[in-house]
């Protein structure tokens, strides 16, 4: 390299991560793009919106309020100092003006699309190239490209698109025409890609999380806080659940002759990634992001256990109940399996089978969930309410199913979210329950469907009381039903039930160690297994007329 070349300034990339407030696991996509930028001799920096407060209650906060998460204090537990939302756009403008990037990469999901557009609108007059990528742009590229501030949209996997864009900018070429799977605008007209390229080798790039601030790795898990790092061991999903947009990626790849979207990393490759993460970041918890971790050849699960024994860090993953058996659970627990989330989704077998395409019977699910309960591994159950055509009675079938379970550490309830690219979104539109142009918010926001059989307000009430119905004795159900209402009586009743639930089920972490709670009502603290007349004393503010 000659002397003149040494003085040439590097090109600059800015990664914009418009994350939901309090969603604490760093993005693998951001980590991958960071590595690619550095490998292409770019300077790269990150603008992360996670710490900025939103106008509305966020998903994490609503899950605490609805008893799905143990309560935690962001400022003391995860060293979190929220930034007022009013500073978000000014801070972003300041960042862009001072850094002067040549390109802005934006990693989004549908829930963060509107925020991303507002941020790009704020710098539209700077005329900086930008590209949006993620699941939503892949499902609806023309909608994602419609806002005037959005310059380009990447569909499918972003690694090769980012690499080609950087290569052209390094050559001082800002015409991005012809890049596979990249939608662009020319003269205010949308120009679709002419080719779709190939699927990537998912082991080629190791994510670099160095752009995230250190406190971003802190995450509550089971009432404890860990320095947590994400890990991808495979990409794609073998299942076709109609409420999920993962099958869309498989369909997209098949229809465009790209090959099989589901690809698994070899265990030697996973080991190398883990070694790199441990060396660079020294985590004390691993958060495995795979759609369904155990949905792989059985032999490979035991290969993972053997490989992971080198690290023995506590880890979490998501899977399906029917994938679990005693031998698998023991092998994984022995090397660090700390907790897991398993998808039940709905308690009505016919609905689950025919509408959601989840095939196992209730009997089979109960059998496998009993195995998990007996394994000693802490686990949470995932359920969804507010599906298209669901009724209140069907929601209670899920509640009744959950009441049959021997044990679980937590239960997650999501409100059906009609994501673009899902089968059930199309069904909701076809039934007239949803406007075609509607964009989602997050999985705990009020239902976007307008259904005569189940209103959004009813779903909200069931959402905040679901755990109470599942775990409290049925003599309390009349009080819980009142707590579904968002009036004075309902809110006061809900507060008392909320405190009682915390006292019973969240006084310890998942390992049984005491947690400090904010329960100050001595009367409620002393109640363990009250008789009905005691409940009448607790909820004495409610008249018999109100109880009818």
- Globally, the shape reads globular
Name the strands of the widest sheet in spatial order: 2-1-3-4-5-6-7
The assigned structural class equals: alpha/beta
What percent of residues are in strands?
Answer: 15-25%
Q: What count of helical segments does DSSP give?
A: 23
CATH architecture of the largest domain: Alpha-Beta Barrel
Give me the Rg, rounded.
25 Å
Which bin fits the share of residues in helices?
Answer: 25-40%
Mean pLDDT: 89
Domain count: the total is: 2
Described by strand count, sense and barrel closure, the largest sheet is: 7 strands, mixed
Structure description:
- The protein is an alpha/beta fold.
- The protein folds into two domains: 9-191, Cobalamin-binding domain (Rossmann fold, 3-Layer(aba) Sandwich), CATH 3.40.50; 222-471, TIM Barrel (Alpha-Beta Barrel).
- It has 23 helices and 16 strands.
- It has helices at residues 3-6, 28-39, 59-65, 74-77, 88-99, 113-122, 135-139, 141-145, 159-170, 246-255, 267-281, 298-308, 326-334, 349-354, 362-375, 392-403, 423-430, 456-471, 477-483, 488-505, 522-525, 532-538, 544-547, and strands at 12-17, 43-48, 103-108, 129-134, 152-154, 182-186, 189-191, 218-221, 224-231, 234-235, 263-264, 285-288, 315-319, 337-345, 378-385, 410-415.
- A seven-stranded mixed beta sheet has the order 2-1-3-4-5-6-7, with helices on both faces.
- α16 runs parallel beside α18, α18 packs antiparallel against α19 (477-483) and α19 crosses α20.
- It is globular and about 75 Å long.
- The protein starts with a helix and ends with a helix.
């Amino acid at each position: 390299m000659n002397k003149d070349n040494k003085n040439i300034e590097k090109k600059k990339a800015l990664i914009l991560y418009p994350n939901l407030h309090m969603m604490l696991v760093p993005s693998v996509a951001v980590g991958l793009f960071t590595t690619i930028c550095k490998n292409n001799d770019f300077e790269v920096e990150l603008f992360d919106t996670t710490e900025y407060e939103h106008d509305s209650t966020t998903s994490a906060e609503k899950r605490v309020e609805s008893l799905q998460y143990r309560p935690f204090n962001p400022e003391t537990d995860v060293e979190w100092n929220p930034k007022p939302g009013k500073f978000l756009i000014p801070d972003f403008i300041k960042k862009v003006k001072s850094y002067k990037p040549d390109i802005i990469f934006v990693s989004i999901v549908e829930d963060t699309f509107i925020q991303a557009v507002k941020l790009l609108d704020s710098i539209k007059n700077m005329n900086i190239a930008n590209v949006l990528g993620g699941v939503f742009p892949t499902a609806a590229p023309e909608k994602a490209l419609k806002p005037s501030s959005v310059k380009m949209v990447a569909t499918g996997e972003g690694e090769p698109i980012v690499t080609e864009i950087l290569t052209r900018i390094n050559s001082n070429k800002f015409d991005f025409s012809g890049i596979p799977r990249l939608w662009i605008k020319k003269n205010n007209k949308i120009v679709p890609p002419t080719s779709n390229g190939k699927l990537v080798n998912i082991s080629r790039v190791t994510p670099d999380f160095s752009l995230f601030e250190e406190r971003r790795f802190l995450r509550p898990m089971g009432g404890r806080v860990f320095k947590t790092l994400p890990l991808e061991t495979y990409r794609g999903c073998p299942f076709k659940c109609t409420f999920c947009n993962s099958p869309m990626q498989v369909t997209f790849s098949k229809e465009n002759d790209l090959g099989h979207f589901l690809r698994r990393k070899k265990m030697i490759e996973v080991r190398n990634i883990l070694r790199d993460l441990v060396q660079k970041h020294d985590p004390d918890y691993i958060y495995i992001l795979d759609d369904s971790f155990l949905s792989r050849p059985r032999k490979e699960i035991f290969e993972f256990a053997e490989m992971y024994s080198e690290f023995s860090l506590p880890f979490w993953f998501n899977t399906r109940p029917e994938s679990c058996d005693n031998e698998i659970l023991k092998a994984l627990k022995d090397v660090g399996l700390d907790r897991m989330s398993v998808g039940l989704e709905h308690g009505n077998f016919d609905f689950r089978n025919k509408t959601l395409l989840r095939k196992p019977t209730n009997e089979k699910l109960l059998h496998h969930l009993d195995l998990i309960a007996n394994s000693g591994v802490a686990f949470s159950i995932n359920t969804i309410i507010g599906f298209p055509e669901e009724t209140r009675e069907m929601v209670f079938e899920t509640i009744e199913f959950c009441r049959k379970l021997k044990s679980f550490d937590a239960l997650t309830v999501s409100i059906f979210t009609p994501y673009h690219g899902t089968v059930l979104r199309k069904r909701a539109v076809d039934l007239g329950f949803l406007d075609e142009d509607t964009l989602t918010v997050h999985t705990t926001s009020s239902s976007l469907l307008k259904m005569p059989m189940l209103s959004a307000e009813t779903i909200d009430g069931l959402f905040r009381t679901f755990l109470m119905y599942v775990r409290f004795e049925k003599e309390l159900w009349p009080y819980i039903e009142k707590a579904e209402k968002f009036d004075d009586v309902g809110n006061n009743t809900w507060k008392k039930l909320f405190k009682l639930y915390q006292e019973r089920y969240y006084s310890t972490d998942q390992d049984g160690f005491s947690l400090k709670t904010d329960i100050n009502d001595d009367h409620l603290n002393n109640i363990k297994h009250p008789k009905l007349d005691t409940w009448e004393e607790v909820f004495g503010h409610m008249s018999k007329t109100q109880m009818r």
